[in-house]
Structure formats: structure tokens, C-alpha cells
UniProtKB/TrEMBL annotation:
A Pfam entry, by short name: Glyco_hydro_3
Keywords, sorted A to Z: Glycoprotein, Glycosidase, Hydrolase
Molecular function as annotated in GO: hydrolase activity, hydrolyzing O-glycosyl compounds
Key word Cell membrane present: no
Membership in a protein family: Belongs to the glycosyl hydrolase 3 family.
InterPro entries xref list: Acyl_CoA_acyltransferase, GH, Glyco_hydro_3_C_sf, Glyco_hydro_3_N, Glyco_hydro_3_N_sf, NagZ_Beta-hexosaminidase
GO biological process: carbohydrate metabolic process; peptidoglycan turnover
Origin superkingdom: Eukaryota
Keyword Ribonucleoprotein carried by entry: no
The protein's name in its UniProt record: Glycoside hydrolase family 3 protein
Length: 927
């Protein structure tokens, strides 16, 4: 626990009432500032506010409301602006809706189905930019839950899917988008809402029954990966129970086992922990809000959420104060939370922005581009899972004049929708429930009474038809005579379901209608049958009896508009169901053959740059070894190296789906694969296999008899030194290369390191004295004419790629040199390359790219009793030279085997690690 330093906080915080106010996260009912919320800000120093759909009428009114809240806080003497938080997950969970200024975007699962990492990032950034314009500085998102039991979980499309690694990928893209728009992030719902058992009563908390080991392998993966990015500002800790052999917890957010031990100690989270709303019935009846608030803080929560009841909120405040008086909550504990909250505020708000949100002036400017992005995203998310009888597009499967029947369930409108807006104009605001209401009060049924949600869908379909559009609703009453009469009239029937797995009457109704249509067809009548799931895709994903099955992932107006366009062939949906369903579909395509073409630098360089950006964005921190690479990085322009690169492209759009770089070194007869890159959205489709096969065949064909061995990884250019270790925690990459013929049992580790703040670095104590006692001396040489001994040394000790690396460095006499270590007898003990920032070598060694980055490259030190001392001496000379060259940071690239460990002792940190593999060319003789 961080202890308070005497002078690191404003004296104001010595007043514990002020400090406690920063630990409170509260909301209220109503679209205007009430005396209650004003009192919380002025009298109780409330530091964070949750806005829900109940508070928000329009973008303009929201900006005014937020500005008024911040003004009250400023005038009340708050040193920092309020955190203003919002649920804006997209799809069905958007607290702020304004069809003139705020765009609708697909749900999390819809974005995963779209399979575009660039679009996922852009949608997140656009969402955050819009809410930021009205003064919101914290989005309660992204959802990090994995749907381990996807069919029966109410979380549904709010999660990215049932694959933990895919969920991690899209969640991290969302985090990047939010952060780049200047909004703070909040992962949820820790430790997981993805596989809950519901016990029935509102007073029964849903529970997690998985063991910690099971959670760690699946549910906790996205949480762990998001924390590793260092960009997750806060974590929403759930109100579920955890029941397994190692835990028996009723409320996760009240347990130090969950917050302090699992979240902080094991996963290393250092941000703000936010409790689930403590107004939930189960907690208030079992413990009471006073005790619950104290327990939440004692467990490690920094912000305690109390959604809207003023009397309950005051009870929580008095509970916190009583906890301090009783000695349960210490001063250290309060100031630990205070520091975390203030740090988050400093990163996402200031008085200058809080008091003057740009509002409509910015929203009106960005709305056209965001609207285009919204339409593109929804079109990309619509998924035709099956269309066995080719019923889509309807314009081809139906004749003019034939009637189309639309059957829709009665569902509750989404909070952010035009349908809700119509209802709000005629009803009390309290009739519309937020996501917090649904969760806290256990009203888990997603399908409730309500009319008009699908009216616009019916109108949209009618506008496209020459024949009549028939539209009727259905309920738990089942198939009625009116339905049968309409089916008799129609040639095609579209039935809409929304979470049929949890609303079983829909599943039964759909199957019944399907049976009726089959009977009509058996008598020679045309009854095309289409099922559209507008929420969970799992309704009929595995039911092959439904021949035409379409998924939209939410039923916002924009989603329904995109559905209509898809049904009538305005575009051809290319998306696939996310997670394991997508993988299952790809298995069937695993032997797909792709056309592989030679890479042309002039025509393909831009496409390769875009492919590299896509890979880096998808990989997050793991992709950092490619972050500085460009198309030019793979071109050696060396007369002693033969290059041949290959691509898989979309011939219509020109986009590159994959790239493979190969090099042949004639002297030793070594071939190398220096890169094998596949668009993340196109993986598991045999693109990599096709590229690898073509590359190996080309190598064998062009070098018969001279090709002796093949190497996975190239030292020059040093982009892809081998298999990236960090990306292969599960062993899947290693397994893939093994399946392509590589013997991966005996790899050679190669490590890239870095050292930041060179100006503050100093040599380890005693290192210089040890070097002097060993009589080791150093010199710096430039130019090939002076490098004969160094090159001969490298040829004897390292592979041919490293030799080429040294040759290139010695050729750049102004920017690069080679440091030699010698014994007292002038015997060469080791060498290393030293580069100035911006050297020619930096274009071939990506870690060297960037402003003010000095390079220490490829230390070659033979094994001896002095080898570690020689290595550290070479690094020391490189660092001294880098200081003279005014380098701010230093990259140390290509360190073999375990030699990186003594360098860590000098202050270097590991940046990336690779495994270089060398095999006999005979492994691929059959090609």
C-alpha cells in the first residue's frame, strides 16, 4: 500500500471530509440539478458523478448540465474537476442518445463480428470524442468479460464473445480509442460476469463457481491483458458472489480476496477500483449500506458507487465517517485511494476543459464523418450465418407483387433509441430503466412489454417492396389464428428473435412457424423462411434446421436500417460470428489455397505499410517490435544477399492480406524467412500456410544443391529475429511452424533490450575497476578498410546475417562504428556495433528508429571466463558513446542466448525476445 508523503498533497486534503468525498461515486434522478446532488457536491465534496439515461435529454442539454455540475464544484472550492462518467458501450447500452448529434455504433459483439481492428479502434475513438464533447471524461467500458456460457448469460452482446484472446484484442483496441480521445477508461466487470449462475430471487446474488485456475485460463485473460497495456485507468468490480474451493464470497466488490489480492497483487492493477452499486437489494438487505460501504473501502475499492437514492447516499457517507472513527478505515487507506483518483483525474480532465465543453460546435463538425463510420460499422457487422437456399437478397428470391410477412416480438426499447424518446415524451422518465436498474434489481428478462420497436423496420422493408408488407407481433401466447392467416398470404416470412435462449417462447414460436412453412412447401407452396436474431447470435447459431439465419447484434434504428440493406442486396455481408463460432467455421476452410504473388516494392510498399499498422494495432504492446518497421525495413539493397518477397492480396481492393520476406546468403548456403505476417482479421484462413509454401518452394527451386540450411528469423534486416516469444504464450505459433516442417525443439534465444533516460544512468559500482583489473581495453573503428579483424571475428562466432549487419555498419562511416574489446596481448575478445540516432542502420533495425535513440547492436562475445565482463564492458562503451552522441534512450538489439541477463544488471530492460530456429534444408526436400 502506498503511504502518504507529508508534502505531496494539497493541504485541503488534510480535511478528511474532503478526502472521503473523492471516494464517492454517485448519481441522481432527473434532467436538472436537484438540491440533493448540489448538496452532495457542496456539502459532502462529492468528486465523481454517474450520469444515466434518466439524466440526459439531448447533447446540448447534457453539455449544459455537465457544465453546471462542474461550475458548482468549482465554486465550492474543489481543487479538481468532477469525474463525469457514462455507460456508452454502444449497441443497446448507451446512456446518451441524440439522433442529430450522437451516432449509434454496433455493440461490442457486433464490432468483433465485423473483424476490422482499424474500425474497432475508430468506433471507440468516435464514441469517446462525442461524449467528451459534452463534458464526460470517464466511460464505464470496455466490457472485458468472456462469455464462457454464452447462450445463457444476460450480458450477451455487451461482451465481445466467448474467446478470451479475441475479447482481449478488441477490448484493448477500445481502450486505445478511448484514451486517444482523452477519456478515462474503466474495465468491467471484474472478476467476470461472463458465466454467472442465477439463483432466482432478487435477494440472491448471482455467483461464479469456476476455480481460480479456470478463471485464470479464460475469464481473467482480457483483464490481465488490459492491465498489461498500462492504459486502463479504472476497474469496475462486480457485485457477484464467488463460490469455489478457495473462495466463498458473497459480494466480490466487498472482498479483499478479490480486490486487494486477486486484482492488485496477482494481476498488478494500480489504477482506481470502483465498486458495483451498493444500492443493490441483495447487499442492502444482507449487510446494509453503511457496513457495505466500509467493507468496500476496506477490501480495496477506491470509488464507492451509489446510483441515485439520496437517503442511501447519505447513509453511505455516514458509514465511511463512522468507519474512520472506529479505526476500521485508516488515514493511509483514504490517502491511497485519494492519490489514485487524483491521478486519474489529472489524466482526463482540467478546469479549462471541464468548465467549457465544446458541445454542439464540435459535435456538428464531426457528425457527418461519424455518421458515415456508423453506417460502415453496422454494414460490416451484419452477419449471414447461413443462407442454404439463397433467399438473400429478397429482390432475387421474391417476385414482384408477392407478400412479405414480418413477425417481431414485443421487446422493451433500448434506452438510446428513437422509440424510447417517443415513450419519454408521453410517460414519466422513471418508467425507463437503465442498465444499472436492470442489474441491481435483478430484472433479468430482456424481453418486456412495449410496442413500436420494430415499426421502422417494417416501414423500411415496405419501402423496398412492390408487394405488400405484412407486419405482426408475437408473444408468449404462441401462434394465433392471425399468424396462420398471414402466413397463408405471404410468400416469404421473416421472424425476428431477441435473446430466444433466455426467452424460450420466442424459440418455440420460431420453430413452430418453421414447421408450418415446411408443411406449406411440401404441398408446393412458396414459403421462404428467414430468421433474424437482433441480439444474441446464439439463438439459432447451431440449429441447422434454420436454413437462412441472419444476426445484427442489436436492434438500434441504424442496425435495422443496415439489416434492410443487407436483405435487399445493397451490400454483401462478409462478417462472421465472433469467438469459437468463427473458429469453427474457419476450420472448414483450413485448406483454402490463396494465390501468392511476388512482392513489388514500387506498387506494394504502401499496402505493406498498412498491413504492418494493422498487425501492430491488433497486437497492442506485443506488436511493439513491428511498431517502427516500414516496408523499406525489409529491403537490404546488399549485393551479397538475394531477396525474394511474396504477398497475398485482394485483387479487387488491392489490400494486402499477408507478406513473407525471404533472404539467401550464398556463402554458407543459408536461406532465411525474415518475416511472415498475416492480417489479423484474416488469420486461420491458410494465408500464412500459402505464403510459407510458396517461399520454401521458391528457395529450393532457385538454389538447387547450394541451399544447405533454412533459418526462421533474419539478423539483417533485423525486423523478425525469429518467433516472437511474447506472442506465443499458448504455444500455438510454435505448433504452427512445426506443422509446416520446422523442428522447433532447439531454438536460439535472441533478445532486444532498451535503456531509457540515458542522461540519468550511471555505471554499476565496481564495473570499471573490474575491467581495468582484467586489463581489457577498447577502441572504436569506422570503415570497412579498418574492419577486417572485426569482420573475421564475427564470421567465426555468428551467423552470416550478423556479418552483413557489421558490414552495413562499417559502411556507414559517419553514423556507425564498431567497438572492439581486446586483451593485454591485443587478442580480440568481443565486438559490438554503436550507432548514432538516425543512422542508415536504423531503417533495417526497427528498435533503433525514433528520435534520439542510440543503438548498441549485435554484441559478439565468445564464451570464456571473462565473457560476461567483456560483454558489460562493450555495453558500457556503447552507452558512453551514445551519451556523446546526445542520445536520450538506447536500444540494444540482437543479444544471443542468456547474455541479456548481465545487461539487465546494468539497467537495461527486455523489450522483445525471439527464438531463432535453424534446420537442414532437407526438411523440405519433398517440395
Amino acid at each position: 500500500m502506498v503511504k502518504p508523503e507529508p508534502n505531496d498533497l494539497d493541504p485541503l486534503w488534510e480535511d478528511q471530509d474532503w478526502a472521503i468525498g473523492q471516494m464517492l461515486f454517485m448519481g441522481w434522478d432527473g434532467t436538472e440539478v436537484t438540491p440533493q446532488i448540489r448538496s452532495l457536491i457542496e456539502d459532502h465534496h462529492l468528486g465523481s458523478i454517474l450520469l444515466t439515461a434518466k439524466n440526459l435529454k439531448s447533447a446540448h442539454e447534457t453539455a449544459k448540465l455537465v457544465q453546471e455540475l462542474q461550475t458548482i464544484a468549482h465554486q465550492a472550492g474543489h481543487p479538481h474537476p468532477l469525474l463525469i462518467a457514462l455507460d456508452q458501450e454502444n449497441g443497446g447500452v448507451n446512456s446518451l442518445f441524440d439522433e442529430d448529434y450522437i451516432c449509434q455504433f454496433p455493440s461490442a459483439m457486433g464490432m468483433a463480428a465485423a473483424s476490422s481492428h482499424e474500425m474497432a479502434y475508430e468506433v471507440a475513438k468516435a464514441t469517446a470524442t462525442e461524449v467528451s464533447a459534452v463534458g464526460v471524461n470517464l466511460i464505464l467500458g470496455p466490457v472485458l468479460d468472456v462469455l464462457n456460457n454464452a447462450r445463457y448469460q444476460p450480458l450477451g452482446v455487451r461482451a465481445y464473445g466467448d474467446d478470451p484472446h479475441e475479447a482481449s484484442l478488441y477490448a484493448n483496441l477500445a481502450i486505445d480509442g478511448f484514451k486517444d480521445a482523452g477519456v478515462a477508461t474503466c474495465g468491467k466487470h471484474f472478476p467476470s460476469y461472463g458465466n454467472l449462475d442465477f439463483l432466482g430471487s432478487n435477494l440472491d446474488v448471482p455467483i461464479i463457481t469456476q476455480t481460480l485456475e479456470e478463471l485464470s485460463l479464460s475469464a481473467l485473460v482480457p483483464f490481465r491483458q488490459a492491465i498489461r497495456t498500462g492504459k486502463l485507468d479504472s476497474m469496475f468490480v462486480g457485485g457477484c458472489g464467488v463460490v469455489n474451493p478457495s473462495m466463498n464470497i458473497n459480494h466480490a466488490c466487498l472482498s479483499d480476496q478479490v480486490v486487494d489480492e486477486l486484482l492488485r497483487s496477482e494481476l498488478g492493477f494500480e489504477g482506481v477500483a470502483i465498486s458495483e452499486c451498493l444500492e443493490m437489494e441483495a447487499l442492502s438487505h444482507e449487510i446494509g449500506v453503511k457496513g457495505g460501504t466500509v467493507m468496500a473501502v476496506e477490501a480495496g475499492c477506491d470509488l464507492v458507487l451509489l446510483c441515485r437514492a439520496f437517503d442511501v447516499q447519505k447513509e453511505a457517507i455516514s458509514g465511511l465517517k463512522l468507519g474512520v472513527e472506529n479505526g476500521i478505515i485508516s488515514k493511509d487507506r483514504i490517502y491511497t485511494s485519494l492519490r489514485r483518483v487524483l491521478k486519474m483525474k489529472a489524466g482526463c480532465t482540467s478546469w479549462a476543459t471541464a468548465l467549457n465543453p465544446p458541445g454542439l460546435s464540435l459535435l456538428s463538425k464531426i457528425h457527418p464523418s461519424h455518421l458515415a463510420l456508423s453506417e460502415k460499422a453496422y454494414s460490416s457487422s451484419i452477419t449471414i450465418v447461413r443462407d442454404r437456399d439463397k433467399l438473400i437478397p429478397l429482390s432475387q428470391s421474391m417476385d414482384h407483387g408477392e407478400d412479405l410477412l414480418l413477425l417481431t416480438p414485443l421487446v422493451k426499447p433500448l434506452p438510446a433509441s428513437a422509440a424510447t424518446k417517443v415513450i419519454l415524451e408521453g410517460k414519466n422518465n422513471r418508467d425507463i430503466q437503465t442498465i444499472h436498474d436492470k442489474w441491481n434489481h435483478r430484472e433479468r428478462g430482456a424481453i418486456m412489454s412495449g410496442e413500436g420497436v420494430f415499426k421502422e423496420l417494417g416501414k423500411s422493408l415496405a419501402r423496398r417492396r412492390v408487394g405488400t408488407l405484412l407486419h405482426s407481433s408475437y408473444t408468449a401466447s404462441g401462434v394465433r389464428p392471425i399468424h396462420e392467416n398471414l402466413i397463408n398470404r405471404a410468400s416469404a416470412i421473416i421472424i425476428v428473435t431477441a435473446d430466444a435462449n433466455r426467452n424460450l417462447y420466442q424459440a418455440g414460436f420460431t420453430k413452430h412457424i418453421g414447421t408450418i412453412c415446411s408443411l406449406h412447401r411440401s404441398m408446393g407452396q412458396k414459403k421462404n423462411f428467414i430468421v433474424v436474431a437482433v441480439s444474441s447470435p446464439y439463438d439459432f447459431a447451431m440449429d441447422k434446421s434454420i436454413g437462412t439465419y441472419v444476426c445484427t447484434f442489436d436492434f438500434t434504428e441504424t442496425a435495422m436500417h443496415a439489416l434492410t440493406n443487407a436483405l435487399f442486396g445493397e451490400f454483401n455481408p462478409q462478417s462472421t460470428l465472433p469467438g469459437t463460432l468463427r473458429k469453427a467455421k474457419r476450420v472448414a476452410k483450413s485448406r483454402q489455397i490463396w494465390l501468392v504473388e511476388p512482392y513489388d516494392q514500387k506498387n506494394d510498399a504502401d499496402g505493406l505499410d498498412e498491413l504492418l499498422k494493422s498487425v501492430c494495432r491488433a497486437a497492442g504492446p506485443k506488436g511493439s517490435f513491428l511498431s517502427q518497421a516500414t516496408a523499406a525495413s525489409f529491403e537490404t539493397n546488399s549485393p551479397t544477399i538475394e531477396e525474394a518477397h511474396f504477398i497475398v492480396r485482394n485483387s479487387s481492393t488491392g489490400a494486402l492480406y499477408g507478406f513473407c520476406a525471404t533472404y539467401f546468403y550464398p556463402g554458407p548456403g543459408t536461406g532465411a524467412i525474415g518475416a511472415l505476417i498475416v492480417d489479423p482479421a484474416k488469420r486461420n484462413l491458410s494465408i500464412g500456410r500459402s505464403l510459407h509454401l510458396r517461399a520454401m518452394r521458391n528457395m529450393i527451386k532457385n538454389h538447387p544443391g547450394t541451399l544447405k540450411k533454412m533459418q526462421l528469423g533474419a539478423s539483417y534486416p533485423a525486423v523478425f529475429l525469429g518467433m516472437p516469444v511474447a506472442e506465443d504464450e499458448s504455444g500455438s505459433v510454435r505448433g504452427w511452424y512445426a506443422s509446416q516442417g520446422w523442428d522447433v525443439q532447439f531454438p536460439k534465444r535472441l533478445t532486444n533490450l532498451h535503456l531509457e533516460n540515458l542522461a540519468e544512468w550511471s555505471a554499476p559500482e565496481g564495473l570499471l575497476q573490474s575491467i581495468q583489473r582484467a586489463s581489457i581495453s577498447f577502441d572504436l573503428i569506422h570503415g570497412l578498410e579498418n574492419g577486417e579483424s572485426a569482420l573475421r571475428h564475427v564470421e567465426e562466432q555468428a551467423n552470416v546475417g550478423v556479418v552483413e549487419l557489421y558490414r552495413a555498419a562499417l559502411s556507414d562511416t559517419k553514423q556507425c562504428g564498431v567497438v572492439r574489446a581486446k586483451s593485454a596481448e591485443e587478442t580480440l575478445l568481443g565486438t559490438v556495433i554503436v550507432c548514432r540516432p538516425g543512422s542508415r542502420l536504423s531503417s533495417r533495425v526497427p528498435p533503433l528508429a525514433g528520435d534520439h535513440v542510440g543503438g548498441i547492436v549485435a554484441p559478439v562475445v565468445p564464451t570464456s571466463a571473462q565473457s560476461i565482463l567483456v560483454l558489460q564492458g562493450l555495453a558500457l562503451m556503447g552507452l558512453r558513446q551514445s551519451k556523446q552522441n546526445k542520445s536520450a534512450n538506447v536500444a540494444l538489439s540482437w543479444v544471443p542466448d542468456d547474455l541479456y541477463e548481465p545487461l539487465i544488471a546494468m539497467g537495461f530492460e527486455v523489450a522483445q525476445a525471439f527464438e531463432e530456429i535453424t534446420n537442414s534444408a532437407d526438411n523440405w526436400g519433398h517440395l
